[in-house]
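CORE FACILITY INTAKE
Project code: CF-77B
Contact: R.S. (postdoc)
Sample description: multi-component assembly, two entities in total
Requested service: structural model of the whole complex
Turnaround: standard
Below are the sequence entries exactly as provided by the requester. Do not edit them.
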Amino acid sequence: MLASSRTNRRVVHNLTGQSTAAILRNCTCWRDPEKVIEIPLVVEQFGRRYRRRWAVRGVSLALPERSITALVGPNGAGKSTLVRACVGFEPATEGRILVNGHDVASDRARAVASIGYVPQNASLYRSLTIADHFALAAAARPSFDRPLAVAMITAVGLAERRRLGELSGGEQAQVALALALGTRARLLLLDEPLASLDPLARRDLMTLLVADVRGRHATALLSSHIITDVEQVCDRMAVLVAGQLVLHCSIAEAKSRFATLPTSQLDGAKAIGIFAAPDGAPVALVDAQARGRPASLEEIVLGHLAQSKRVAPQ
Amino acid sequence: MLVQIAAGRVVLRQYRFELGVVALAALLLAAYIVSVEVRLAAIGAPRECFADWLSTGPDGRDDCANTMPAWVALFRAESPRIFQATMLLPFVAGLVLGAPLIARELEFRTAQTAWSLNPSRLGWLMRQALPILVVLGASVALVSAAASPLAQHAVDLGDRGYELIGSHGASVVIRAFASFGVALFLGALLGRTLPGLILATSAVVLLSVGIGDVREAWVRAQPPTVVGESTTAITVGWAWRTPVGSIITDAEAKAIVPPEVAQLDIGLAQAVNSLEWLDQRGYTLLPLEVTDEVATGWTAYDVGLFGIIGVLSAAGSIVVVNTRRPR
């Protein structure tokens, strides 16, 4: 714990004063930034370009310890690129990423050692059994908690001897999560782990995730399309649209900050974004100071997506 | 340690098909070689007969004349294909085991899981490659060991040991590792197993041909001894013995030939007129030869060159694994 605190203090000190201030200022919903001394993940002006196209650009965010942050955004927004970059799979074209104080680019081994990662599509060995996967994980990570991983898959009705090729997409996702959580990593990066799951399996997976993160004070970044699900388990959100971060704050603060009202009642007030309600009527997302009813998380995301579509992002 | 052994067993299970094919092929080949050895031994040709056979052939000692023809017939029937197989096996085994090791991880996207679990990709590569290399090394070493007595028989029987380089001994094992390294590297570079295997096969063929050419050049560069009587020596040029007994080079001899005679050589594949002119005047054509013992010295260079290829391609694989983006 002592070593951990030292490491994380070093993270803060390692950042240039201006960058630290910028990151903390960008995280406008941190009620008391001075108290945030432990930052498992710091993304600093990160950009990733494929030939001429920027997949992600100018993204800065910091995840406080013990938080579960939802990374939401439409297809092609750059969510997977950002998550993959945190594991060292995508080199930064500009900016940098620090995991528990270690630069992913220059000190990848130490950074990856403190990450538990679930890829977008459970990329597991179809010919091997679940037990084989745990054996490989135990060889790779001395800290791998096999009993925990076994308990997790047993809890969802899977036996260790089952081959991955025999499992459904949802069951494979459960195994991938068990592998990631079994590492006992301080930072969990989950790239759309819910996409292939039915509602019940999603609930099970979320329950496991929350219990683990809260139980051992880990931190998680959960990329997802399914806003209603992440709303239940995440305490922070980051909205990524067209490779740019348009919102990053706690869910509670977002809900208190934004409201919606029919566009006909705007009366000249400035809308953050206008989108269609389920009945097709145009609805405006506005700042909470304006009139209107409190916005749901989905409406907050939709409003920001609409805003980003109106403004050319790049 | 137990954890690493368990992971090694999982790796072996992952590649059980390729490992099974290689190990089975090696076992069958080794068993076949041993069976040929047993059949040769059953003929009961005394060891001393080999020297006798070389000098007198079937007309030698009675006990040799009774056994050697059958022994030689069996040896000549079996040994060429055995040596071809033992020369081919290390390359094929290395290619089959090396190509999928990284390529398949990239192709089936399992590299994402593997590389996120393993903080060090080099460590991951070692854990993956080591069990495979143990099986590969054991398989080709078995074949190499089985083929060694047969290669000794061939040399005893007057064959060139030089031409058997790569069919037995350490060079078999090193060639397998080199082939494995090339396939590993190209598989990692392409990220696809089949294209990696095809490209690696082409590369290994080219490298082998290239090293074969270097070998020929090396032998020709060795100081020749004028022998002309050894059946195993390798002719690398020609010299002439003058009527007074001194030795001159082929160029010096040709310079003696009058221009009007040499002119008639033009257009002919060989300087027949010049040769006849020299022959008629008491000059004797002598082959410039490198002995088989000297030529077999190439074995060390063969091991070294294939070793360097193996090391370089392994280093290339490490670089690719460390820099590659998993799909």
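Facility notes:
- The interface with chain A takes residues 3-4, 6-7, 9-10, 13-14, 108-120, 123-124, 127, 325-326 of chain B (CB under 8 Å).
- Chain B has two domains: 2-222+292-323, 234-290.
Invoice: internal transfer
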